[in-house]
Amino acid sequence: MKKIVLIVCAFLGMTATAQVKKVSLQASGLTCSMCSNAIFKSLKTLDFVSDVDANIKTSTFDISFKPGAAVNFDQLKKKVEDAGFFVANFTATMQFDKQVLNSDEHVNVHGMLLHFLDAKGQTIEGEQKLKLLDKGYVSAKTWKQNNKLTKMECYKTGVAAACCSKGSGTEGKRVFHVTI
Amino acid sequence: MRNILAALLLLTTGRAYTQELFVYTEPASNMSAKSLGARLTQNFSDEQGRLNYMVKPEVMLGLSKKLMFHADAIFSSDRHNSFGINGAGLYAKYRFYSIDEVHRHFRMAAFGSYSFANNHITDAYIQLQNRSSGYEAGLIATRLKDKLALSAGASVVHALDNRRQLFKYGDAQRNALNYSLSSGLLLLPKEYTSYQQTNLNVMLEVLGQVNLGNGQSIIDLAPSVQLIFNSRMRLDLGYRQPLLKSGYRNMSPGGLVRLEYNFFNVFK
Question: Per the domain annotation, does B201 fall within a domain?
């Protein structure tokens, strides 16, 4: 039984990669090109990042990834913060198999836990653009306002609480709060 | 001296860490974490008819996104026109508050510094990282809104004895209040299209010191111009003009030329 579980987990691990097609993030706190360059150079140090296309005027960075590499959103955010700035907007383009989205439900998308804050029971499939609403991925003011979108503890903490996991064993796992 | 200047100008320069790139003061923003910077500042001032030339090489280290350190050495000419190392200093800054929005921020930082100097002491004016031994602690607040940055700083400075001479003005005069108001405006380019465009910033700073012992003070106006090439090279040209005739300081502060370079991601 253990062997089967391990094989399934390995399979899930493999398919967890290559699901994030690209990320477009907008940084806050800067105007000039030298600061933009600091963020650009900081993002480029991540080994899963293949290319960064910077728009200095709008402070946006379109990031593409190496094929098969595991994309880590929190590391992308950390690189912007290490450069001395913050993330104001974060949109991830992701590939979905047929997925039903229910309100306040945690969806396991190939190893990544997603919580859709505006789900209405719709079904999605294929390439979708998701906007992240977690702390540190929007301005502090926006994050505070968004707390009214869900009563669940995970939006404040960023990890699945006991109430959210419903016996699925995901308590304590990182969950990303998104809208589509 | 011409050869020194030529060699300095040939140094590659470049840094990309903060946009409130004030020439005479530090902003509340920090360097990128894990980056190393090198700076070479030259000051030209008039001390009772004698040209005082100071060169200050400085190394800057971004330890984390909130904490940075500087270490510097002072090379200057003394009253016998002999040029050599005349001091050294350390500086630390910690950014403790930051609210950011797109193209805007409000930040606050605390800083401290220590320097020692070799010079003879000819007035009670306290200038660390230059002519005076001592330590300083203060706060900076910086506001960026689109192309304009404004900053205010205040600190308390305490003079220690210089190596060559004791501070001879009495203990009450060892303490002073430093204050500054800085503004910087991004003039060029009008619109950003690439990292290769030349940037032109203009700054205007007001720098003052009030001695807490004798109440004497100075207040200077410091305009400066800054060119940035390829989002990597930075050249500062500044001039400090005294606004008050004061017996507190017998040196006219003069002009400044600075070059900078940054090494990114130097350690994991």
Answer: yes
Could you give the number of structural domains in chain B?
A: 1
CA-wise closest residue to B264 among A78, A85, A41? A41
Interface of A with B in 1-60 (CB under 8 A): 26-38, 40-42, 45, 54, 56-57, 59
Domain annotation covers residue B268:
no
Residues from chain A contacting residue B194 (CB–CB below 8 Å) = 33, 56
Nearest to A34 among B15, B33, B99 (CB): B15
Please tell me which of the candidates B18, B104, B147 has its beta carbon nearest to residue A35: B18
**pLDDT tens-place string over residues A11-66:** 444 433 348 999 999 999 999 898 999 999 999 999 999 999 999 999 999 999 99
Q: Dump pLDDT digits (tens) for B32-55.
A: 898 888 999 999 988 778 888 999
CATH classification at residue B231: 2.40.160.40
Give the strand pairing for B36-47 and B50-62: antiparallel
The answer to whether position B13 is within a domain reads yes
The residue range of the domain holding B90 is 2-263
Cβ neighbour number for residue B59 with a 10 Å cutoff: 13
Residue B106 domain-assigned (yes or no): yes
Q: Provide the ipTM.
A: 0.84
